[in-house]
Amino acid sequence: MDRFLELRRLVSPGVALVHPITIMRGENAVLMDSEGRRYIDFTSGIGVVNLGHGNPEIGEAVEKALKNLWHLCFMVANYPGYVEVVEKLVETVPGDFEKRGALFNSGAEAVENAVKIARHVTKRPYAVSFENSFHGRTYLAMALTGKYEPYKVDFEPFPSAVEHVPFPYCYRCPFGQSYPGCGLECMDYVKKHFFKTRVPPHKIACFIIEPIQGEGGFVPAPPEYLRELRSVCDEHGIVFIDDEVQTGFCRTGRFYAIEHSGVAPDLVTVGKALANGLPLSAVAGKASLMDNMPPGSLGSTFGGNPVACAAAVKVFEIMKRDDLAGRAMRLGELIAERLGEFFERFELVGDVRGLGVMRAFELVKDRRSKEPAVKETSMILEHARRRGLLLLKAGLYSNVVRLHPPLTIEEELLNKGLDTVEECLKEVSKQPS
Ligand SMILES: Cc1ncc(COP(=O)(O)O)c(C=O)c1O
User: Fold this and answer.
1) What's the half-sphere exposure (Cβ side, CA atoms, 13 Å) at 231?
2) Do residue 209 and residue 285 come from a single domain?
3) Which candidate, 126, 65, 88, 50, places its Cα nearest to that of 282?
4) Does residue 91 sit in the same domain as residue 168?
């Protein structure tokens, strides 16, 4: 064991570790560990380095920013990077209306602030999120999160006025229906049951939804569901918060995943890939909401750090110039084709899904019962690492293998990684369960 892994004993085990290796360097989609081993990276640091590790153009922008000004606090005085990032955000988030933005440090912080804005403006208490969702680990974000273990265990009491409704997880429909013939019973439930039994709509400040659940196992909400949710929000004056922390920045083949549905959310939360690995997050959306926030009610010491902003400005520039959304679509088709083959060949693969370069497969012991193949999922991750590929799992039952490569990954490397996934599936399929 290397010295750094030994030192990890000093870190609280509350910060979990998926792969027991120490990474020393990264170059685009390749990571090098302390023993000199190389790995193809299908994690992107959990959907963060969409433009690859060590991207030289971003590095140059960061170095320049470091030389000029590395901290000020936006509440002290204005500086270019912050307002330039907000300018790019309001240009790119969907919606044909006047928009505003504000910058923060992490995805959870963006989520908290979006809910703050919704509550402040509507003067209503309730925030409604979805089962199987993930919105972060701070208290409100944790309360919004729709999975108990491991995120919420023994952390009660949670902030009040947070409710959950079923997510349209069609492979495991909570209503036993099958899509698309279901008539969106899950939405009917919200309108006819939830509003009557739990919270009336005039008490709801916001719905917050991931258009594709990330930690929940890359579960896309059907576009019709998102459109229906939009109309429910319109009807009742509820703020529609689109959590794009994991789906944003071209990963799904659009700048923001919600664009696939044509829905314009009221507020969008972003983080992760916004600055390609430097800590930066944001809320952007309707000026009519964000202009209502009193001075001093938003912001933080580090939120919108100049170095992180310089990285983000470069991210926007490269994504547009190199049409990364188009590239994500093309690579996504390639991945989808291979996943389709895996589905045909391996009984273990119960479902394949996703959009763009945000793809996953769900492992089951038996396709009829859909019993989650949890052990097998962990084995795939281990086998893959031994073969030089880093993967992540996800899902309500931790039985989903998610593929999260940088959008800049070379096609040859992507194929090599997918070949490795295939070998692992072959190997694990042979083992008695
Ligand atoms: C959809 C979503 N929202 C919020 C968060 C929280 O982001 P952070 O870990 O930066 O606080 C995550 C993190 O995985 C996420 O996937």
Assistant:
1) 10
2) yes
3) 88
4) yes
Here the CATH number for the domain that contains residue 380 is 3.90.1150.10
Structural domain boundaries enclosing 352: 3-54+323-430
- Give the number of other Cβ atoms within 10 Å of residue 393's Cβ: 20
Which atom of ligand 1 is nearest the CA belonging to 279?
Answer: 10
The tens place of each residue's pLDDT in the chain, 433 residues long, gives 799 999 999 999 999 999 999 999 999 999 999 999 999 999 999 999 999 999 999 999 999 999 999 999 999 999 999 999 999 999 999 999 999 999 999 999 999 999 999 999 999 999 999 999 999 999 999 999 999 999 999 999 999 999 999 999 999 999 999 999 999 999 999 999 999 999 999 999 999 999 999 999 999 999 999 999 999 999 999 999 999 999 999 999 999 999 999 999 999 999 999 999 999 999 999 999 999 999 999 999 999 999 999 999 999 999 999 999 999 999 999 999 999 999 999 999 999 999 999 999 999 999 999 999 999 999 999 999 999 999 999 999 999 999 999 999 999 999 999 999 999 999 999 876 5
Whether the model clears a pTM of 0.85, i.e. scores above it, the answer is yes
Its sign, for the CA torsion 280, 291, 129, 210, is negative
Ligand 1 centroid distance, CA of 189 (Å): 27
Cβ 313 under 6 angstroms from ligand 1 = no
Any atom of ligand 1 within 6 Å of the Cβ of 283? no
Q: Which atom of ligand 1 is nearest to the CA of 136?
A: 6
- 347 and 238, same structural domain? no
Number of domains present in the structure of the chain: 2
The verdict on the CB of residue 124 being under 6 Å from ligand 1 is: no
